[in-house]
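Technical annex, item 7. During the second reporting period the consortium partners agreed on a shared format for inverse folding records so that results from different sites could be compared directly. Each record opens with the tokenized structure and is followed by the designed sequence. A conforming record, contributed by the partner at site C, is shown below for reference.
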């Protein structure tokens, strides 16, 4: 076989692989703290990361584990475990910028002692949602933006609130007027709604296999726990409830209990 012919066959193969990847609804592989690792695997289920199950999605005749990497992870080598073998993957370093904010309601930065039972109860409620692993619904990993407006705060910023270091920004903020529409970014099930101390009026959607999205600071909630929603369905409206500097939607994406960059699930990046 001539060299040219071999090259042409290789180019065609690579091209069709790229086309398959382009048509794919899988999130982008970006293995950094706060990112997602897309790792080819041979099993359709039973893959774990740090002892917890991770999402596995079929694409053509291949399977991929989709792993959320916690923001606090150190760069280095990690591995997924399967019944018969391990799958290693590398996490690269990523530097996130620092943001300083002034919150006028000081109690939302330094809660009173008698706020703590409520805060702890709400944290436990959200953790139960983030750590659930539901295999009884089709998984949806291809998202559209849940509100229209500019991104006022990207994911991952290191945060200093009223001159005090706080947890990094675990979602992205979309600036919009109070009352603006919030829509489901993909099919899912409403697993919790509530009025939380920091997050204000909040909706949590389960998209299957440990993938959860969260909508915070809403002025109005239009869904109830247990509702099944389709992409584009109304969830509620933008507001400024909870710890805010103004009306916006805080949108978080959680995968295997790691808050990750929502951009990796969008076909069109926002920043
Ligand atoms: Zn936010």
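Designed sequence (site C submission):
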């Amino acid at each position: 076989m001539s060299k040219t012919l071999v090259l042409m066959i290789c180019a065609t193969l690579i091209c069709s692989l790229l086309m398959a990847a382009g048509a794919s609804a899988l999130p982008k592989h970006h293995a950094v703290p706060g990112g997602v690792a897309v790792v080819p695997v041979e099993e359709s289920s039973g893959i774990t990361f740090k002892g917890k199950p991770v999402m596995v999605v079929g694409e053509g005749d291949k399977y991929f584990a989709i792993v959320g990497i916690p923001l606090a992870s150190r760069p280095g080598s990690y591995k997924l475990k399967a019944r018969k073998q391990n799958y290693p993957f590398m996490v690269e370093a990523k530097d996130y910028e620092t943001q300083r904010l002034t919150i006028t309601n000081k109690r939302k930065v330094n809660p009173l002692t008698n706020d703590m039972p409520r805060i702890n109860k709400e944290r436990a409620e959200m953790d139960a949602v983030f750590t659930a692993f539901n295999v009884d619904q089709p998984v949806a990993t291809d998202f559209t933006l849940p509100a229209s407006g500019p991104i006022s705060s990207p994911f991952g910023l290191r945060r200093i609130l009223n001159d005090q270091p706080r947890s990094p920004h675990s979602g992205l903020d979309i600036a919009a007027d109070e009352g603006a529409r919030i829509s489901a970014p993909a099919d899912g099930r409403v697993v919790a709604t509530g009025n939380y101390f920091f997050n204000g009026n909040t909706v949590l959607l389960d998209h299957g296999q440990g993938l959860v999205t969260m909508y915070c600071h809403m002025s109005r909630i239009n869904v109830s726990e247990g509702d099944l929603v389709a992409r584009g369905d109304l969830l509620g409206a933008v507001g400024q409830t909870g710890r805010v500097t103004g009306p916006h939607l805080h949108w978080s994406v959680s995968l295997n209990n790691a808050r990750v960059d929502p951009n990796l699930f969008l076909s069109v990046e926002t920043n």
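Residues 5 and 11 are 10 Å apart (CA to CA). The chain has two domains: 24-91, 98-265. All partners now use this format for quarterly exchanges.
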